[in-house]
Design goal:
Order of helices and strands of chain A: EEEEEEEEEEE
Mean pLDDT of chain B: 92
Radius of gyration of chain A: 13 Å
Structural class of chain B: mainly beta
Strand content of chain A: over 45%
Low-confidence stretches of chain A: none
Strand content of chain B: over 45%
Radius of gyration of chain B: 13 Å
Largest sheet of chain A: 7 strands, mixed
Distance between the termini of chain B: 41 Å
Oligomer: heterodimer
Number of strands of chain A: 11
Shape of chain B: globular
Number of helices of chain B: 0
Helix content of chain A: under 10%
Low-confidence stretches of chain B: none
Order of helices and strands of chain B: EEEEEEEEEEE
Chain lengths: 112, 112
């Protein structure tokens, strides 16, 4: 089983709909991140969390919200999806001591 | 402001030759800098890192060089192999903030 699991892997949704992307990890790490990847823009940080009670905005948090339900679970929500949120979304975890981040396989989201 | 820039969107090299990927950063704090590799339809995977107190770190065919005065790092792959063809992202661990920030990526194509 993957260390970082994202669900769903692919999703098509309509403009204005609420959608949640889920992430769970078995690494036992405290730190979790959500990124989006767009062509030519690389990986941009949306939100990050260093423990269950710590949530921080990243570079592009507008239009998104997150919930850290447990150490192992970090979900990303789009309250009212819009077409420019069409992207590949990645969840990642890291250990404070190692700096290395482990990524999920990604969720391809299309907003029509 | 913490930024990481990769000015070359793509690079093509012949198998067996050296690949050099470059990255510039703005952060002045004590950091780790990391390189990640990403294949299509997969999440990024950690490749190699370097502490800001070092100038060089080597792991097999991969070497990362850090020029602190120029705020520049580079990844050397020698010899390059077709399986190295992927998108390479450099990242800044964010020092005390631990806000893991990525560059825009460089697509490396190694020609047989």
């Amino acid at each position: 089983d993957a260390d970082v699991t994202q669900t769903p892997r692919n999703r098509i949704t309509k403009t204005g709909k609420r959608i949640m992307l889920e992430c769970s990890q078995t690494k036992g790490h405290d730190r979790m991140y959500w990124y989006r990847q767009d062509p030519g823009l690389g990986l941009r940080l949306i939100y990050y969390s260093f423990d269950v009670k710590d949530i921080n905005k990243g570079e592009i948090s507008d239009g998104y919200s997150v919930s850290r339900q447990a150490q192992a679970k970090f979900s990303l929500s789009l309250e009212s999806a819009i077409p420019n949120q069409t992207a590949l979304y990645f969840c990642a975890t890291s250990d404070p001591g190692g700096y290395e981040a482990f990524f999920g396989q990604g969720t391809r989201l299309t907003v029509v | 402001d913490q930024q990481v820039k990769q000015n070359s969107p793509s690079l093509s090299v012949q198998e067996g030759r050296i690949s050099i990927l470059n990255c510039d950063y703005t952060n002045s704090m004590f950091d780790y800098f990391l390189w990640y590799k990403k294949y299509p339809a997969e999440g990024p995977t950690f490749l190699i890192s370097i502490s800001s107190i070092k100038d060089k770190n080597e792991d097999g065919r991969f070497t990362v060089f850090l020029n602190k005065s120029a705020k520049h790092l580079s990844l050397h792959i020698v010899p390059s192999q077709p399986g190295d063809s992927a998108v390479y992202f450099c990242a800044d661990s964010g020092g005390a903030t631990n806000k893991l920030i990525f560059g825009t990526g460089t697509l490396l194509a190694v020609q047989p």
